[in-house]
Structures are given as C-alpha cells and as structure tokens.
Amino acid sequence: MEHGDYTVGWICALPTELAAAVAMLDERHNHLPQDSHDHNNYTLGRIGVHNVAIACLPSGVTGITSAAIVASHIRSTFPSIRFGLMVGVGGGAPSVENDIRLGDVVISKPDGASGGVIQYDFGKTVQEGRFVQTGSLNRPPSVLLSAVNTLQANHLLKDPELTRHLSEMSKKFPRMQAAGAYPGVQHDQLFKAEYSHPPGNDTCTKCDPLQAVCRSIRSDSVPGAYYGLIASANQVMRDGMTRERLQQELDVLCFEMEAAGLMDDFPCLVIRGICDYADAHKNKRWQPYAAAVAAAYAKELLCVIPADQLVCTRPIGEASAQGAQHPPIKPVFTVPFRKDNKFVDRKLIFSQVEEHLRLHHCASLSGMGGVGKSQIAIEYAYRFQQSHPQSHVFWIFAANSTQFVQAYQDIARKLRLPGCEDSDVNQCELVSKWLDEDNSSGWLMILDNVDNADLFLHSTDLNPSSAGTDRMQRLLIDYVPRRLDSKRLLINTTRSRHVGENLIDGESCIEVPPFSIQEAESLLRLNAEDAVDRCKPAVIKRLLDILGYVPLAITQAAAFIKRNRMSVQGYLAALEKDKQNLMDHLSQELQDPRRPRGFPNSVFQTWKLSFDQILTQEPQTAKLLSLIAMLDPQRIPERLLRPLAERDVDFRMALGTLDGFALITQEIGGETYAIHPLVQASVHYWLKQRNEKAYYASQALQLLAEKFPSGKHDHRERCESMLAHAQAVLCYDCVSENDLRHRAALLYRVGWFNLQQGRYISAYQEASESYKINRERLGEDATTTLDSLSLLALVLEHQGRYEAAEEMNRRALEGKEKVLGVEHPNTLASVDNLASVLRYQGKYKTAEEMYRRALEGFEKMLGVEHPDTLTSINNLALVLEHQGKYKTAEEMYQRVLEGSEKVLGVEHPDTLTSVNNLALVLRYQGRYEAAEKMNQRALEGSEKVLGVEHPSTLTSVNSLARVLREQGKYKAAKKMHQRALEGKEKVLGVEHPDTLTSVNDLALVLHNQGKYKAAEEMHQRALEGFEKVLGVGHPSTLTSVNNLALALQKQEKYKAANEMHQRALEGKEKMLGVEHPSTLTSVNNLALVLYNQGKYKAAEEMYQRALEGKEKVLGVEHPSTLTSIDNLVLVLRKQGKYKAAEEIELKSTRRKREGAESGPASVI
To answer: Which ranges of the sequence are coiled-coil (predicted)?
Structure first.
C-alpha cells in the first residue's frame, strides 16, 4: 500500500476512542514512512472497500487547535483523502424533542444556517454561562450526507448494524468486551439542570435521587441515533444550566471539543457517542461504551458508501480549490529564499503559529534580531505551500516603504490584476482591494521585518511616478489585509513586540527566544560538522554560551570556522581573549544566502539596526540602553535606573520599548532586569563606532558613586544588589578628573562594604586604590584622603597586619586632629581604631587609655546611646577583659548589649558581637551554662544575618566550641573547632592570627582527649605562626608557649616543658602583670612540672602563689581557684603535711557544696 491509496481520514481524541476505531478495522496495514514535520502516529487499515488512515490527538492535548494540526498533517501525508470522520465521545443535550440517553450516538447534520457544527466560544468561562457564537463552519461533503440519509432510511426498516459490529469487536478483542457491553440503565441518570454535583465525589452515589429527571424506560438497549447540530469549543462543557440555555438558543444535540478545528479545511462528518450530559455529574463509566458505539456507527456508515462514489469525489485539497468560481490561473509563491535543508525544527513555535492562525487567522513573531523569526516564516511558507497547493503565498519585505511597494507591485503583476501595468494606478491600493474582496482564492501573506512603527503609522508617498496634486499618500498599515479568515492568513515578523501587536489588533505576539542548547548544537553541527565532531561537549557548550544561543551568531561562527579551517577550540579562544576580539569576530560580514541581499549578516550589524531605530525615534530610550550596557548584565535593579528619567511614564515607556525589542528582560519578581552579554557587547560595539562608549562609562561610574550606599548593616541588601554593577563600572578606564573623583568615592564605599562582609582581600585592593587616588588628587591632609587611609588601616587590622595598621592609624589620627579637631567624631573614631590595633598587639594599658579617651569624646559629642558610643564601650570592655578585669568587663558588656538591642535591634551584627563578648567574659568567670546559651544565640544570629562563612560567624563558632570544651564536651567541641579552623583558613588565610587561634584551640581539645602527640604538633604550628605574625612577646604567642609546654609535660618531657613554662611565665609577667589570670595559669602550670619532677617544696610555693592570686582576681568560688586548691592539697600530702592539707581541703569542700560549679580545669 502507498500513501495515495488511502481515501478516508479518521480522527479521534482519546485512547479509548482510538482503541475502538482500530477494533473496527477489517484489516490492518503496515506502517508507511512520513515527513519529519508530521508528528501524527497513524494506524492504517481497511473497512469494507475503503482504506482508512486513523490518527489520534497527542496525549493530554485536546481541543480545536490540536485537532486542526492533526488534520493538516493527515491531508499533507495522504494526498488522496476524500473526507474525514471525527469519531469519539461527547456530552449529550437532551430535550423534549430529542430524548438522548447515555450510549446513544449523535451525528452532525447541516440545517439552513450552519454546516452541522457550531463553534460557540473561544474558551470563556463555562460556569458563568457567558458564550458568544462566533459563526458556523463548513458543511460535510455531499458523499457523507448522502450516506447518512441512506443509513437513516435503513434504520427505519431494520435494526442498526452497529450492534453486530460491537459483538464482533468483543469476540475479536476479548479485552474490549467491557467496552462493547451496555453499562446498564441503573447508571444512566439525568439530573435537573440547576442541581450541582456534590464536590469531592467522583461518582453520583451521594447525589440526591429526588433531583433526577423522571424519564420513561426504553424497551431495549439498542443505541439511538440522533441527527442535528453539534456545539464545539476549546473547553469542556460541565454546567447543566449553560447546557440548557445553549441547547434552547442553538438547538444543539451534543457538546464536544475538536470538530470546530476541522470543518473549514478538513471536510468531515462528526460522530459522537454520548458518555455524559455535559453537566457537573460527569464521570468516565460510559466513555468506553460510547466510544465503541460511535466507532461502530462510523463503520456502518462507511459500509454503505460505494467505492465508485469516492472515485468521483475530489481529494480534499483539490475540492477546496474547485469551490472557487474564478480560480487564479496558477498559485503565486513569492518567497525569495530557497527552502533551508539545514533548518532546525522549532516545534513549539510552529504549534503556536498554527494555533494563532486557527484562532485569529493572524500571528506576529517577535524577538531580537538574529533569533530566526524570518527562518521560521520561510519554513512555514514552504510547509503551507505543500499542505495548501492551491493557495497563494505572498512574501513582503517590510523594512522600508520602497520594498513594501515593490512587493505589492510584483503581486499585482503575477495575479494579472486589472491595472497592474498602469503607472498611474496605486498598486498597493489595487492589491489591498483584491485581498479584501476576492473570495475565490486562499492565501498566506508574510510581512517580514516589520520593525519600524513610524514607517507603518506615518503617511508615505506610494506613487512617486504620478504628477500633480492628487498623488496618493496613505499609511502603510492601511494596505495590510484586515479581512482575514481560515483561507486568508497573515504572519508578521518583527523585532518590536508593540508593532507586532498593533498589526494583529492587540493580540499577543509569539515570542521567539534564542535556541535551546539542543537546537543550538544541532545548528552548529549542521553548519560545521567536521569541526564539531572533533570537539569536546564542554567546549561546544561554552561557545554556545558566549554566542547566547542566537541562531544568526551560531551560523556566523560556523561560517567563520569553516571558511578559515579553524577548530571550535581555536575560535572559542579568540572570542574569550578580550571584548575587542569578540566584537571583531562577531561584526564580520559573511554572506548568508537565507538573508536578504544588502541586509547585515553579522549579529552585531543586525542589532545595530535596532539601536539606530531606537535612537532616531526615542533618544532617551537609547540613552537608557547605553547606560544599562555599562552595568553587569544580570539583576540590574530598577531603583538604580529610575532616576535617569524625569517622569515615571517616560521611564516606563523606555523600559517597555527595550523589552519590546527583546533587548532586555524583566527577571522574576519584576524589580530587576537583565541584558544578554552578547547584546551588551553589541551595544559596546555600537557606542564605540559612535565614539560614545567612554561617555556612557563615565555616566555609569557617576551613577554608582552616587547611589551605592554606605556599608552599614542596614544597607546590606542594597549594597549586595549593586555590588556587581559597581565592580563592572570600575573596570572601565578613567578619562577625566571627574572620573577619578567618582572612582575614588565608589572604591571607598565598595571597600567598606566588603570589609563588613569579611572579604578582606577585595577590601584591601579597593581601599588602597581609593587612598592612592585621593592622595594624588587632594593631598595627604584632605578629609577624604584621611578617610581612605583609616579604611585601609582597618582592613590591615582585620588581616592581622597590626604593625602596618598601627602606623596608618597614627597617621590618620594626626591628620584628623589637625584638620577636624580632637573632639570631632571622625577623629574619635580614629582614636578608637588605634586603640583596637594596640589591643591586638597586647599593648593593653596603652589601648585602655585610648579607648577611655574615645569613649569620653563619644559620650560628649554623640550621647550615651549612639551606636558609635556603644561600640567604644564594647572595645573598652574587651581590653579590660584581656587584663583579667572580668567583673568590670561584664558590666560594660551588659550595658552595651542593652543599648544595642534598643538602638540597633536584636539581630544587628553589632548586637550579636556584644552577645558573643558577654558570653566570653562569663566563660572566663566559670559560668559555663550561661556562656553557652549566649554563644548559641550569637552563632545562630550571625549565621542568619551574615552567613556561615563570615569571619564574625566563625568567631562565634570558635567561642561556642571553647565553652563546650570547658564543660568537658570534647567531641562536640572538636567538631566546632574544626569547622572554625577550616572556615578561617579559607576566608582569612593560614597565617591570620584568628586562624592560628583556632589551631591552638583545636590542639587543646586533642590535649583534653589524651591525644598529646597530635596536640603537640598543632601547638607547634600555632606557636611558629604567632611568633612570625605577632612576635615572641605577644600574649597570644605566650599562650601558645604555655599550651605547648602542657603537651610536652603530658608526654613526660619535663625538661623541655619546664623551659617553655618558664618562658611563658616571664613573658606574661612582663606583658600582662603578675596578677593577670593568664599569668596565674602559667604559675600553676610551672608548679605542676615541678611536682612531676619531685620538687615538692618549689611546687608548693608556686601553687600557693597561684591560689592567692586567683582568690583575689577570680574569686574563691571560681573553678580555676578550686583547681588550685586541689593542686596545693596534693603537694602538701606528698610532703606529709596532712593537717594543713586537710584544713585546705575542708575549705574547698565547703565552697563546692555551697554551689560552686565543677568542671575540668582551665589550662589557659
């Protein structure tokens, strides 16, 4: 069998309908090949003397448009199809005249006003009952109507044959027995129209039987056949009241969803088995039987049509042409391009085009230049010509009026319209009149490149050869056909969505996006197959990313690769070299036969047309586009762009134009925009050609310098949203003094923000350059220079480069005292900064003096609750804590915390720092449970507000780990210390003091777990790092000396441990004083070494000294004090001083019983 042997097209919508149709075949045929664009899945066979091609709608895609697409493909693949049958289920509309029951069959039959099927809506809400009849559709072919009459007469004389067909189906296909069996009258209930189905129930078991309509019982179960009008729409009818109203208004027998898509272009008969009553009581119980009844009726119908009648009936395509009384001598096809054998199919867009043409008879394809709009239109034109061989296809190049007029003149000549050779006749008027008035010819018109709104909406001289004052001037849009129907179709391609919508009476455009990755790779492979085959997939993807998946750019790249015999890798390397290289390659003109002669073939030159048009028509919009192109291409905040327009309406119109040309896109949420990097590079190329790139780079730099907020926590979200754009504009060269001023200001703000976010390397680079620019422009003593210097000093401090930070802080302080005065807040901030760097160096006394000076100044100048005052109090508390003055420090921390919560809020980073510091001083006092709660609060807040890798968060992690360790929770502590160490190594670097502190802390946990060798190695690493970074006398270095000594001592390396303890003690006495808790810890540790060496007398003296100091500084109930008591008792017993030991032990026991917290000894 061949395609031309099939004469009947059978269409169904559901799998149950398809199964019933296949079951009716007398014979199955083998599958035949079909074109790639035909996505139907055919079942071929014979019924009686007729060969039938059966196709089902795609799964889940029902409705008018889907049916039309399936029918179009059948007609194209099987050219000898004489008529169609639309066979399946429907919803019955019973009335007094037509007692339709479930399982009956309804057949479409014309009346005086319609062809048998009425399309009554375009998808409006059914439940509301608001429908607008949009007209009737064509009649079924005469051969079918004659067969229907024959069958009606047969049924008056004898029982229908369909019952026999159902029985044979059940025998032939046992699995279809249920479908062929009548479900039973007990399941056939028609409820009153106003009675709604109870929600949440699939069946009618809970429906009120009193609401059922009383009907007579039939004498048998033979399906009845009803002939009349069928209502068709894109939406399921499921409302009884609406069904009743439409049944009375339109006199319809049944409702369904597909037939209206077929009747104009696919003459057919509609046969519907009734499976429900088109109301809310729908269920699927009757569907298989109703589908089988409809299929059986269709078989019975075909069996009464003689073969010779089909021979005399023209195929569908020829029949539609035959209906014209004055057919054109030959179909006109004016597409000026060959069919593209390398076209990459875009199925979704083609289905959208067919849907728009079905619903509105017109469609506009919109998208940026180069995305393939014209190529889609060309391919559609060829497919249309194949499926509508008797129809005209007109191609109008509409980029300018000259070519528009020439295309119309060409159409007039090829159609041999009267007056086509007369130079005094307006050819556009002549063709426009024919398009609107001729009813004999079907046609498709394609208006290509309808980009210029002014061209179509401003009057144009269309008859330049005529003389005198009567020369005709009209709008081009007046000549675009308006009278459209299923035989007269219009497609537009445009870069401007607004123009496209205007051309189709405000209907939505079909947006043509760049390719998907699969489509893009297919196009590249088709045009440069050899080079692609030798290339890795990752390289191909990277190239397509750069090309933006834009078809024209991909075609251009493939042509360049092929012409120059390059590898894909080599071409990619050239594009990635720099922006200039990218612009050079993508602005090359390589001829593409698929594009109009004289029209740009490079993607950059193509987009330049859009930019020039916008500049001419909307100069302010062109300025906005130019400025947007200077920013980072992603997440451009609307609030950053808004001040560029004086009026909001102008701003909105400008954004709308850019969006309409697909040059920018609105991102999810609606408050940010994006510009594709390739479009951005194209705008740069355009501006460079106009010598305007430097100007807009300066404008963007000034905009960011003015709009980038200060780095305060309250501005964090805004800063983060603008950071990428600030970094983008900082990449451009400065060409003026103003540029340098704005650059320095922006660098300062960005550097401050990066410092607050813990990005110290970036902050250092930005602060350094800002300081350099200001110093060279304004001098060392200018306020802005001193501010940049202070920022640089702060960054150095956070990097642990304390000596350099101290030197810069002193310079900044001297300058501000000189320029601003000693009490100016900026001067006081420098005092505070200098004190902090002194504290980090262990110079606690000097730092305390500076902090007190700053605090007194802030309280006087700003008030006691100002955030800067609270920060100063916090810093003073820190240095007091380092000196072992825990009670005073605690009181100050408490004051800061209360003030911060009140002024800044409980989640502000400064508040969380206060929480962490208060926890620290509680831990030093042995109040571990309270400290742990505070540490947990600080950590959770920091993770939420700052992120898990922020330095402040990592400090909170470390602090919580310490208090866990103090309580003997070594496993949990070790896990937290490891997290802190890994985070600090990543964020701060391996030699940062904070990182070395975490190394030391992790070593202590290992020590507590008895892993002394591993602890020794970690302590050694920490010590070497502190000696290098902070110096041998720094308190942190001395703490490391002490801890290393403890690890050596546990391994019985007493001599080495003794030397290290001695060094730690001497250093702490010098740096911290003889009564500092850390000094007293070293005294205790040295005594322990002496004890282990059997030097009990010397050990006793050292333990006595440690105990007296701790009682004075820490209090008699501090865990560390109690540990010293225990140590002293041990050494007294070793010497036989039992009475003295007993007295001290009794005192210790009494203290513990009175409520002192017990816990492992603190070794630091």
So the answer is: none
Q: Which amino acid is residue 451, in one-letter code?
A: D
Specify the DSSP class assigned to residue 442.
Answer: -
Backbone angles phi, psi at 665, to 5 degrees: -130, 145
List helix spans (H) across 1030-1118.
1035-1050, 1054-1071, 1077-1092, 1096-1113
pLDDT for res 784:
93
Nearby residues of 125 by Cβ (< 8 Å), 6 or more positions away: none
pLDDT at 860 over 50: yes
Lowest mean pLDDT among 78-82, 534-538, 579-583, 789-793: 579-583
Nearest to 307 by CA among 421, 472, 147: 147
By CB atoms closer than 10 A (0-12, 13-18, 19+), residue 733 is exposed
pLDDT at residue 495 in the model: 85
User: Which pTM does this prediction carry?
Assistant: 0.51
**CA–CA dist 31, 36 (Å, integer):** 15
How far apart are alpha carbons 287 and 90 in whole angstroms?
9
The backbone torsions φ and ψ at residue 679, rounded to the nearest 5 degrees and listed phi first, read: -65, -40
Using left for φ > 0, alpha for ψ between -120 and 50, and beta otherwise, residue 708 falls in: beta
Residues present in the chain in total: 1164
**How far apart (Å, rounded) are the C-alpha atoms in residues 1062 and 244?**
104
Q: Report residue 370 as tokens.
A: 């180069």
Q: Phi/psi class of residue 123: alpha, beta or left (left: φ > 0; alpha: ψ in -120 to 50)?
A: left
DSSP-based three-state secondary structure for 54? strand
| Ramachandran angles phi, psi of 511, nearest 5° | -75, 125
Give the orientation angle of helix 1077-1092 with respect to helix 1035-1050, to 10 degrees. 20
Interval 262-308: pLDDT, tens: 766 688 899 999 999 999 888 788 999 999 999 999 999 999 998 87
Other beta carbons within 10 Å of 573 = 13
Residue 842 near residue 1036 (C-beta atoms within 8 A): yes
Maximum alpha-carbon separation in the chain? 137
**The token pair that represents 275 in the structure block:** 């499976």
DSSP state, 1118?
Answer: S
Band of residue 130 on the pLDDT scale cut at 50, 70, 90: very low
Return all residues near 523 (Cβ < 8 A) that are at least 6 apart: 342, 344, 515, 551, 554, 555, 558
C-beta atoms surrounding 995 within 10 Å: 25
Q: For 2-25, what is the mean pLDDT?
A: 94
